[in-house]
Amino acid sequence: VPRGHDEYYSIIAGPDTVGLHDLRPTSPTFGLGSTYLFEDTEPMQLMFPRGLAHGWLFHTTSIHLQATSAEHSQYHPHDNRGCHWSDPDLNIEWPFEPKHVSERADAFGPLSDLAF
Questions:
Q1: Which residue of 50, 84, 89, 108 has the lowest C-beta tally within 10 Å?
Q2: 4 CB neighbour count, 10 Å cutoff
Q3: 72-81 long-range contacts, Cβ below 8 Å, gap at least 24?
Q4: Do 110 and 89 form a contact (C-beta atoms < 8 A)?
Q5: Are 2 and 51 contacting, i.e. CB atoms less than 8 angstroms apart?
Q6: What is the CA radius of gyration of the chain?
Q7: Cα 76 to chain center, whole Å?
Q8: How far apart are the C-alpha atoms of 5 and 96, rounded to whole Å?
Q9: Tens-digit pLDDT profile for residues 42-82
Q10: Contacts of 114 (CB under 8 A, 6+ apart)
Q11: What is the C-alpha end-to-end distance of the chain, expressed in Å?
C-alpha cells in the first residue's frame, strides 16, 4: 500500500498550469480534475494532500518550488507512479498540448493501469 505524501507547490518564474485529479475514493471530489494557472506576477501557492494525481505544464521556461511532507529517502516506490498526462479519465483540461514531454512521462500508461 503506498504511503503517499502531501505536497506544496509555488512558481518562482514563468507561467505554468498545474493539473490535479482526485484519486481518493472517499472524497466528495473523487474522479474530478482541475487546473490552476500560476503566474510569477502574482504570488500563489498550492498545497494538496496525498491521493491527488498531479502534473505541470510549463508555458515557457519556468522555475518552481515543490516540497513534500516526506523525505526523499522515505519515498516508497509507489509514491512516484504516473499515468499519461493526456488520459481523458483524468478530467484535466490542459490549456494546450506540450511541445516537450519527458521520456518517462510520455511512456506512462493510462490511469486505469494504476493500482490503488
A1: 89
A2: 19
A3: 74/3, 75/5, 76/2, 76/3, 78/1, 78/2, 78/3, 79/2, 79/3, 79/4, 79/5, 81/2, 81/114
A4: yes
A5: no
A6: 14
A7: 17
A8: 28
A9: 888 899 888 888 899 999 998 888 887 766 566 566 666 78
A10: 81, 82, 83
A11: 8
All three cell numbers of 29: 471530489
Alpha carbon distance 23, 31 (integer Å): 6
26: Cβ contacts below 8 Å, ≥ 6 apart: none
Q: Mean pLDDT, to the nearest integer, of 87-100?
A: 94
Task: Print burial letters for 31-45: b (CB count within 10 Å at least 16), e (below 16).
Answer: eebeeeebebeeeee
Amino acid in the structure at residue 67: A
DSSP 58-104: ESSS-EEEEEESS-GGG--GGGG----TT-GGG----SS--S---HH
Task: Give the pLDDT band of residue 33 (cuts 50, 70, 90).
Answer: very high
